[in-house]
Every structure is written in structure tokens, then in C-alpha cells.
Amino acid sequence: MSTVPIADHALLSDRHSAALVTTAGSVDWLCFPRFDSPSVFAAVLDDDAGHWSIRPTAPASTERSYVEGTMVLSTVFHTAQGTLELHDAMALGESSDPHRLGEHAPHALLRGLHCTAGRVEVELCFRPRPEYGLVVPVLADTEGGITATGGPDRLTLTTPFPLEHLDGEARTRFELEAGQRVYFALRRTGLGKPVSPPYSQQEIAAELEATITGWRAWSRVHQSYDGPWRELVHHSGRVLQALSYQPTGAILAAVTTSLPEQIGGERNWDYRYSWVRDASFTMRALWVAACPDEAQQFFDFMTAAAAHSRPERPLQIMFGIGGERDLSERVLPHLAGWRGSRPVRVGNGAWAQPQLDVYGELLDAAFRLREQLGDLEPATRTFLAGLADAAASQWRQPDNGIWEVRGEARHFLYSKVMCWVALDRAVAMADQLHATDRVERWAAEADTIRDAVLAQGWNEQIGAFTQSFGAPELDAAALMLPIVGFLPAADPRVLSTAELIAERLTDDRGLVYRYQADAGVDGLSGGEGTFLLCTFWLARVLAMAGRAREAREVFERAVGYVSDLGLLAEEIDPATGDQLGNFPQAFSHIGLINSAWSIHQAEQR
């Protein structure tokens, strides 16, 4: 059972797959060759599910950071005898074009050691466990390293030192003196293909340098934001880039599965997929972070994956990063879960839920990119106009809502509002969609939705917009009303809702919960942490209402929980302040970027 804090992990990415590395130099999560492939190392979920550690044998203090402008990790170990620097990266491969970052990734994890002072004894333990820990591979010596064979993966570990191995585990100890450098690498090839030969030491050094160069070139092209919290915004932009799947442009919600929203709880989901809902949130964040190419790639992925020619069929709400539709969920009973939080799941059953808000999110994404998109292909025009028609015909139905509740479907306020967004944006884009003949019908239905939201979504008794029509419960998703333009942020009803959420839907630290979990709306037992995205929403609404000082206070509360590497999970434990949920979470970094921008705009005004 892993007890390493979630925030103790660093993210590595080649824009195909990802690894998580602890402060102690252990790779505790790695999926090859895609983000959603079965893991090779999964010690973050179970101590027996595999890891690869490199660390001093003596007690050491540790400091770490990303190499400036990159997602290459530097961990410095200080022992009584000397100092050791460890560089970790997923190799990006050679590319002279920063817009194509990671296109030729060789599917290799690189690790470089440099003794910078004194003398340090180092221990290496290589314990691959493919298929989420089910496979104990056969290890065999080869020139320049060892190979691991078992399951769908063929792994080659490059090592300059001989390793002793037994029962699928290899170990060695060696000593480095000041000035000495050594390199290690792990490469993967699929079943039935020639096993990759070990790298030479010079090849690993060159790959590591090329990876640093590639990330820095991308950052120079894309990192132009110059407002408050500049470094946090730039770093969050790199995190979103690291969470994108280069072959398709899909952006993952997170690189992990089943990191819990409450220790020992059951809200443990697989987030290694791409949600339609993220589209409009991500479009704005990528625009602020100056990533227009990535924004269009993500939009193109979403419209291609979601396209279908059956208007009566609800729009699917999430897809595999290659565009896959069937994401059927199953439990891995052999894994203990992070800190005993079971079940561990792969796949995500929410893919089959009706969630009506996605019509608005996808059309809002198109609206944000309308100038960049130019003349749309006929099929894309037909598909987007069909989304507006679907929103008009389906908005009266109950659904599972933005939080993908596993309880009873309801008439969620946010879903209705986003159906209004779908129609509002379709009217604004009618010329581009070649659908001016539908404007009158779309506008009339949008007005009907607005009237219903204002009449049934507003609860006069508590003085707030609530979670669903006729219900008294609060929901942070109501903060989106001004963000999507449904009402002005200065509208008294919006301010009253924001103030009530800040008063009743927050923990002692002032961080915002999504909703009242004890009300039973999601059909699950137990509770959860506060939701960082919702806290950033509160900051945005306050900024949009001209209350920039209060917005800053809320924003700084949230970013006070970033890890030492500037990474955020999904939630914060209200009792301990520790990060909870899948990691790192795109929503949290998107919220950081968008709310920083809103505060910057408010302060300029």
C-alpha cells in the first residue's frame, strides 16, 4: 500500500505517455506506449505493482525543480559525504519544430546522474511489473543492460553497471566521485517486434539534452503571458502540453487512475481520457497560455471523435485519447489502492451517461476558435449545427450533470445553462455554420431555457441559484453563469450565489467544495475534498464583478497548495491540506490559468 503523498510526485511526459517520480528518486508510475496503456510501474497504487528507484544509500536531504522552461526533473541529494544530481525525463526525440513537440518520441525514460561534490554511494532497484502488476517478467542480461520479457511489453534497461537479478527484480550498488556522470534508460518495444538494443552513454546524454532543448524551444514560442503569477501560468501551460497526446491532440484529465477523492473512499476514477466538457475551459486556457496550435488540435480531435450522423443519439461526453468510444469500466481487485483506497478502476463508466452540458461546451469551443477555424468543412458545419438542434430538443430531459453523478438523473441547473450556451453560440456562428435559417428557432428556444433557469433554478428562500431545479442544495457549478455569459457577474443574483457558496460550501481554509456530498446526489458513500477548479471559479467571478482584491485572496488560497514543483491534483483534503485525486489534474491547471487572466484583466480595468 503506497503512502507517498500525492503531491510528492513529479510529472514526466513525452506527449505519448507519462511517468511519476517521487522525491526519493523512485519512478512509481509509468505507462507505455500511451498514457492509457497498462502500467509498467504502479507502486503509487500498490507497493507490489512495480517501481524503478535510484537514490543514495546514505541518509540524504533533497531539493528538486524542473530545469527552467522544461518538464525535465532535477533532484539533488545532499549526503554527509557528497552531492548527487539526478535528471529524469521522458525522451522527446529530435525535432527542430517546437510546434511538433514529441512527434518522434522514442518511448524512452531517461535518467542521468552527476556527482557534483564529494563521493556518493548509489543504490538502483529495477522492478518492472507490467499489466498493472499482474506480470512478473523474466529478466535477462544483454550487452549494456538487461531485458524484461513478459506480457505485451519488451523492456530494455540500459545500465553502465552489472545488475544482479532474481524473481523479476534487479539491483546494484555503485559509487560516484565528484565530476563523474552516468546514464540509464528504459525503452519499450511491443510483442513480436525486435527488442530495442541498449543505448550508449553518449546516446542517452544526447537524448536528454535534446529533450531539454525541445521543451525550451516550445516555451519560447508559447509562453507570452505577462500578467500576475507569470511563472505559475507558464508552468501550467507546460503541464497542459505534457497532458496532451501528440498523435491526436487529445488532452487528458490526468495521467493517473484511482487516486482517491477521499482517503479510503470509493470515488476513485480513471482520468486518462479526454472529456468534451474540458473543451471550452481548455480553449481559453490555451489561448491565455498562447498555444493556438494546440487549441485547434484539441478542437479538431474533439469534433472528429464526437462526430456521428444520428441526431437522436446523445453526444458522448468523453473519449479515449485515440478517439475510442468504448471506455468500459472494470475493477482491478489485486491492487490495494493509494493508502488503501479501493476499488482501483480502469476505464470510466461515465462514458455512457447522458450529460447535456457537453453541447454547450463543444459549441463554445468552436465559438472561441471561430476566427482561427475560418471556413468550416461541410461535415463539420453539419455536425456543429446538429449539436445546437440536439440541445434545443433535449434540454428538458434530466441527466447526470457536470459531476457525472452515479445516482438518479436530475434537472441540473448547469446542464440547462450549457444548453443555452449551445444555442447562443450557434446563433452567433450561424453564418459560419450556413444555418441562418435556424436562427429564429434557436434564439426562441434559448429564450425559453433562460426563462426556465431564472424561474426554476433560482431559489428565493436561500437567495441563490441551486444545483438542480426546485432543489435547495448549493453547487459550485452555478458560478459558471457569469463565466459563460448567461448573466453579468455584477447581477445581484450572481453575487448572492457566490457569497452563499463562499459562506456555506467551503472548508475552514476557504476552499470550495463542488457540492454537498452528504446530500446523496451522487449515489456514493463518504465525502470528498474541496475542488480546486471550483475555488478558481470563485476567484474568476469575483474578478469579473470588479472585486479584484477578494479575487486575489481566493486565488492565492488555492495556489498555496501547489506542490514544490508547481503541480496540482484535483482536490485538497479539508482535514490535512494534502492533495487528493488524480494527478496532475488538467482542470486545476486550467482553472489557475483562467482565473489568473481574469484577475489580471480586472486589475487593468
Describe the structure in your own words.
The chain has 605 residues and is an alpha+beta fold. The protein has 2 domains: 6-219, Distorted Sandwich (Beta-galactosidase, Chain A, domain 5), CATH 2.70.98.10; 223-604, Alpha/alpha barrel (Glycosyltransferase), CATH 1.50.10. The chain has 15 helices and 26 strands. The protein has a 15-stranded antiparallel sheet that branches. A 3-stranded antiparallel sheet has the order 24-25-26. Strand 6 (61-66) and strand 7 form a beta hairpin. The longest helix has 22 residues, at 201-222. The N and C termini lie far apart (51 Å). 56% of the residues are buried.
How is this structure best summarized?
This protein is α+β, with helices and mostly antiparallel strands and 605 residues long.
